[in-house]
Write the C-alpha cells for this entry.
Amino acid sequence: MFQRLKDLKKLRTWYVVKLKLVDARLYFVSIFVGLLTGLVAVPYHYCLYYFFHLRSEFFSSRPAWYWHIPLFLLFWGILIFVSWLVMKMPLITGGGIPQTRAAINGRISYKHPFIEMIAKFTGGILSFAAGLSLGREGPSVQIGSYVGCLVARWTRILRGERKQLLAAGAGAGLAAAFAAPLASSLLVIESIERFDAPKTAITTLLAGVVAGAVASMVFPINSYHLIQVTEPVFSFLIQMKYFLLLAVVISICGKIYSLIMVSFKRVYSTVKSPVYLKMFYLLLVAYIISFMQVNLTGGGENFLLEQAQFGAHSQIMWVVAMMLLHFGFTVISVSSGLPGGNFIPTLVTGGLLGQIVGLLGVEYGILAPENVSYVMLISMSSFLVAVIRTPLTAIVLITEITGHFEVFYPSVVVGGLTYYFTELLQMKPFNVTLYEDMINTPAFQEQKRYKLSVEVMTGSYMDGKVVDELLLPENCVIINVHRDGKDQKPPGMRLIPGDQVDIELDIQDIEKLYEPLVSLANIY
C-alpha cells in the first residue's frame, strides 16, 4: 500500500512537470496563431481600406450619370452573391463574435474552417465595398478563431486546450483590426470566453501582440493618433455634473439603440420578400447616402475621424441629422445578416453623440471648442459600455488606439456610471442578445447532450480525486478521461494534473454550468 502511494506521488510529480512543458508548447503555438491571424486579418483590413478609398474617389469625382448604372448593377450582384454565401454557410453571417463564443463554448464546431474563413473574408470585403455600414472587427475576430481552429487540428493540440487557441485567434483578430493587443485580450475575457483563466489570458495576449505587430507594420500611421485632445479646465463639481449628465444621456441613447437594433433585426428575418429585392433596397439606401456623404458608408469610421479632428465648429442640428442617418443605415445593414460587425458603427454613433453633447457645452459656455474631441473620446468608450457591456475593453481600447491617456480616468468615471445606469435600465449586452437568439434557433434546439472537455490543474478540486467521488451538478456525467494520448474508462480512476476530462451534460445547461464545471478543474 505504501509503495503504491509512493509510486502515485512520483507519477503525479512527473505529470506536473509534463503539464508545464505542455503549457509552454501551447504558448508557443499561440504565438504562431497570432502570426497567421495577422497575415490573414491585416490583408482583410487593407482590402477594406483600399476598396473604400476607390469608392470614395469615384463618388467624389462626380462622374457622368451613365457610369452609375453598371456600378449599381455590379454592387447589386455582389450583395446577392454574398447573401447566397451566407445561405450556404450560416456561420459566416453578421459580425462573428456570437459564433466565436459558441465555438469556444462547444455549442458549434467549425466543420470546414478553411472554406468558411475564405467565405467570411470574401463576404466581408464585398459587403463593405458595396458601402454597407458594417465594421471590420467582428469578421476579424471570427477569422482569427478559424485560424485557431485550423492550427489546433494541424498541431494535434489537446482537446481541452483547443478553446485556448480559438480564444487566442479571436483576440489576435481584434488586435489586427485595431493594433490594440491589450484591449483584444480583455474582449475575449469579457465577452467571448467569459472565464478568466490565466492560460486563456496569456495565450490571447501573446497572439494579440504578434498580430498587432503585423498590423503596425502594414499601417504604421494610426488615424486615431491624429485626433488632438485638449482637456477642459473647470472645477471638480462642474466636471462631475457634466460627466453625470453625459452618462445619463449615453445610457438612455444606448438603450434606444439596442432596442431598435435587436427589434429591427428580428423583424427583418421574418420578412418574406425575395433576397434580390431586399438587397436592391439595401443598396439603394447605400447609394443615396454615398451621394450625400460618402464617408458615412463603410461603417462611418472616416466620418467620425473627420469630425473628431475638424468638427469643433459644426452645426449641432447637422451632426444630429448625420448621426440619425448613420444609425438608420447601420440598423438595416446589420439586420441584413451579411458578413460585417457592429462594433465600429457603434463606436461612430457614440462619438457623434459625444460631439453633440460637446457642442452643447460650447454653446452654453461650459467648454471651449478645442474640448469637443475630448468629450467625443469619452463618449465613444462609454457608448460601447452601454451597448456591448464590456467596460474594460471599451476604456482600454479607446486609450490604446488614440494614445490619449488624459481621457482614461474620465472614461472610467463616465463608463462606470453608464454601466450602473444600464443595469438600472435592465439592458442586455447586444452580443449576448445575438448569441441567445442564435442558440434558440431550431437547429440548436435539436441537440440534446453536449460534451465539455476540461483540463485538470495542480491543486484544483478534481486533482487527486477518484472519478466516482466527484460531486457534479445534476445530469452531468464524466464519460472519458484522456491521459498519455489514450482514452481511459472513468470508473475508479484517480485524476492527476494534465488529465483531459470529458463531461457530458444537457445542451440547455451549458451557459449556466460552463464556468462552474471548468472551475472544478481550475485553481483560479
